[in-house]
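#lab-general

N.A. 3:47 PM
ok so I finally got the sequence cleaned up, no stray characters, all 241 residues accounted for. can someone with queue access submit it? mine expired

B.Y. 3:52 PM
send it over

N.A. 3:53 PM
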Amino acid sequence: MKDFFTGLQFLTRIRVVEQTDWSPESFGRSVKYFTLIGAIIGLILAGINYALSQFLPAHVLAVIIILAEIVLTGGLHCDGLMDTADGVFSGRSRERMLEIMKDSRVGANGVVAFVVVVLLKYSLIIDMTPTMLTTALLIMPVAGRLAMVISITSFPYARPDGMGKAFAQYAGPKTLIIAVLVALVVVIPMGLPASISAGVAVLGGILSARYFADVLGGLTGDTYGAVTALTELMALLIFVI
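B.Y. 4:20 PM
back already:
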C-alpha cells in the first residue's frame, strides 16, 4: 500500500498518510497504480457533477468541474502541458527545448496551449447531459493515466536525471499489464461508447507521446503531464462525437 499512497499523493493533493520517504524506487513502483488513481479522480469529479447538476446551470457546473480537477491534481498536468508547449514549439534545438521546459517561467506557447485546452474542455462539458457527463468524467482520468503509464514504460527518458526518470527506471515489467487490466475493469462496464472513447483517446495519447519523443529524443516528466492532459481532452471529444 505504501507505493499506492506514494502515487496518490504525487498525482493528487489527497493526503491519506504522512510520508517522509519519497525514494525513486517507490515512485517507480507506484506507476502500476496510476489508472486506479485515475479512477479515484474520476469518482470525485463524477460525484461533484451528480451533486451539483440539479442545482447549477451547465456553464457554471463546467467551470466548477474544471477547477475541481485542477485543484485535485495540483495543476500537475497543466504545468507539464505548458512547459511542453513552450519547449517543443519554440523552434530551437533539442537541447535548448529541454532547457526551456526546465525553466519555471511560462511562455506564450504554454499559455496559449493551456487556454485552448481549457476552452475545449469547457465547450465539450456543457454539450453533455448530466448522465453523459458522469460517464465521461469517470473514463477521462483513467484514459489519461493509462496513456501516461504507456508513455513511461514504452518510451526512453530524454534527460540523464530528473523525477520522471525514477518512473521510467523503476516502473517494472508488469506495470503496464496491471495498469491496462485496471483500466479495462473500470471502463468496460460503462458500455461500448465509453470503451471506444477511452481506447481512441489512449491511442491519441500514444501518438502525441511518439511525436514528443521524436522531437526531444525521449520523454520527460513534463511530457508525461502533457500526454495526460491531451488524452483527457480527446476522451471527452470522442465521447461527445
